Each structure stands twice: as structure tokens, then as C-alpha cells.
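During the reporting period the student researcher (J.K.) took over the structure-prediction task from the postdoctoral fellow and processed the backlog of single-chain submissions. One of the processed entries is reproduced below for the supervisory committee.
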Amino acid sequence: MKISVGDSEGRVRLQGSLTLRDAKQVQGLLLDAISASREIEIDVSDVSSIDVSIIQLIVSARMSAEQRGRKLTLAAGSSGAFRATLAKTGFLGDDGSCRRVDEEFWAGGELQKAEIGA
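J.K. obtained the following C-alpha cells:
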């Protein structure tokens, strides 16, 4: 597991295998980023596996950011492991595609209109 602040102040990079054991550290890093920046980007491109607890933290951080007038996004190009966990836990379709407009967040802004169901 590796968690770091990226080159820019509002970028958080999550790497490796992230489990419940890492939740407190991820939470702290996300809260620090929300406090320090108006726009926060989470890079999950190098995540090899991820626990649903970390995904729930991202959901919570996004809501906290919005409440503070900030914007939290995922970097485009999320890893296959990350998308697989999103699909397994119901955040995306079984094939990792977006089913609804509100799932665009998980696609890192790469929503394809053909992937949206009614």
C-alpha cells in the first residue's frame, strides 16, 4: 500500500492494495486535501486491489468536499482492479460500465453516453 500527495497540492495518489487497515490513513489524507485545496483529484490508476471501505471513504470525502464548496474528482484512467471492485459492490454495472449519469464520477469523467441506461 502506498498513499501520497501528488505533485500538486490537490492531488492524492492511491497505490497498491488498500484495505480496511489503510482506511484511517486514507481518511486523513483526503480530509487534509479537502482542507487545503478547492479542487481535489484522486488518482487510483495504480491500485492493485481495494476494499469497499476505501470506496466508502471516497464517497464520504466527495460529500464533505461538496458541503465545503470544493470539488473532488477521480483522475481518468482508473485501474482494472478499482473498476472491478466498483462493479462488484454495485457502484458500476457488472461489466464496469456506467448505467446512470450519476455514475460518471466513478468513470473519472470518461462517461460514454452509450453506457448510460434509462
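The committee noted the following: Confidence is low (pLDDT under 50) at residues 110-118.
J.K. will present the remaining backlog at the next meeting.
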